[in-house]
Amino acid sequence: MTNAATFAGHCPGCFSGKGDASICPQCGYDESLKRGPLVLPHRTLLHHGQYLIGKVLGKPGGFGITYLALDTKLQTRVAIKEYLPRDLAGRDAGHATISAHSAEDGEFFRYGLTQFLQEARTLAQFDHANIVRVRNFFEENGTGYLVMDYYDGITLAEYLAQQPQGKLPEKTAVGILMPILDGLREVHAKNILHRDIKPQNIYLTTGNRPILLDFGAARQAMGERSRSLSVVLSEGYAPYEQYHRRGDQGPWTDIYACAAVLYHAVSGEAPPPATERMHKDELDIAALGVSAALAEALRSGLATDHHKRPQRMTEFQALLLGEKASSQAAVEHKPVLADIPATATTGGNTTSSAEAMQGKKPGGLKKWWIPALAVVVVIAVVATGSKEEKSTVPIVDAPVPVEPVAKAEQDKAPTAAMPAPAAPEAKMQPDKAPPSAPAAPVASGSEDAEAALWKSVENSTNIESYNSYLKQYPKGKYVKLAKSVIKKLQDKAAARQAEPLRAETEQKEQSIWESATQQYVISTDGTEVADKIRGLIWRRCAEGMEYSGGTCTGTASEFTYNDALQHAAAQASRTGKAWRVPNLDELFSISDKNFGSPTIDTIAFPATPSLYFWSASAYATHSDYAWYVNFNVGSASYGYRGSAFRIRLVRAGQ
Asked: Strand runs (DSSP E) across 601-649, as ranges?
């Protein structure tokens, strides 16, 4: 049986032999650096000795840790994700077993674990050359593990950061995203949603394949089950319906996020948060200077009202290609990336195309899953019509100069047989007569017959009446007018459906303002806010941001724990005011789940980042850890002091 001693001389960073050296001469990984208590020790063996744990891939998230590992049987590298929601559970030093913080936390931990494993079973069903293989999943140490293929590469966020002005040529951006859309179409066909698409979750391998990572739905499922965990989302990429626990979500939700990623790729920045756009939409697509096709796709895909977005991924893809949304042409999408520099590594998941999704918007009996982990990469051919036509997505105008990289060590996933094309839906073609036998005209071939029919429907408020006219007279003199009326009726219907959402937003804003006027007093210059209840004075903006024009602008700075304390001391010295990092009780006192996400009064603390803020409170059990507050879900936990979190300064009231 395999034991850890067998691999004592292997580097946990690449699994090549390094002998007794602390720093690997092959990859430079230093295994002498201390790992946090939540992380499994190097060379831990899992699943009866089959998997040898190595370094942590990326930054540990709030709901799990992903490791590089070695499959000792196949002698190949894999990525293993461990289910570990640190707000609910942890592991003691020297122990591998996960335990919940409390009995209540244990209930939610087990519920999330069930979702994690169920999603693993679902993702394992994808068997295609362009979908990363979910090799295995199992339970051990009181939690669950998902084993995935491993790839070298970088995230789209990192790739964008390397580009001039942080953006890409239009053709490159569309070429990167189009295979992702193919994969999402296959995922949507199985009633699965992603709900966290963003540049950080799109991975570009050294083999020129874009991969969609981290479905992250165990946290979503738990958020819907308990008020103790709010919906987790990414501002700028999450549509308005995701800000509501019971928001109407479907393929259109992922379409918004994909459009937001494209917007970021061609503009250099993410769109404003959907909540801000609902209040005042200042998104200017025309200023981007992109093609008419991309501009129309972005306008449609980024519509705040989900009824006005494409409802299926095929419709969004058709807009990107400058085709009509009803187009049934098959499209072949080919790799578009130049060689990707291997500046980071992670576990990946891939997906490729399958038949076009023919499902409609989910009704009461149709359940949409939101799975929790990695899947989707795609470079494929999608057949959606009875006659196959192919067009190639334009690739990058000129290769991006990069440094050469080593070829990734990986197995090639077996190619699955392409499913037979789905039967195309019946579609009305505006420029052709319907294939069925035409209805008998009122007065054969006469303009009087058309005029009579138009007169009978022109004042109708029923869309079907105008569709009936269009079917009978597809090239008639009133076609443009009929289509215009249909558009207006559709807009009115959408506005009626959106009205409850607007009312809910206004009610929420009113309750927040009432809370602010009762508890907080804002300084004359707007930079500070006094808590009347607790006798504290806070800076309204996170450090690194500035108060201007009634809100906090700029990007919040991130600090390690020690740097945060030093920064606060420097601010106190510079201003002559006793600014400091708040203790845990003080920081947690301004977090209130009633405000939604972020869980903070956004009148008193405008434009606040929604994730982690350091407190000054040390963690008693481990000296290398300290407490922080997560304003995304309104919870407190402890983190490694070397992690980079935001800070908000406080001082005693006068």
From this structure: 612-618, 625-630, 635-640
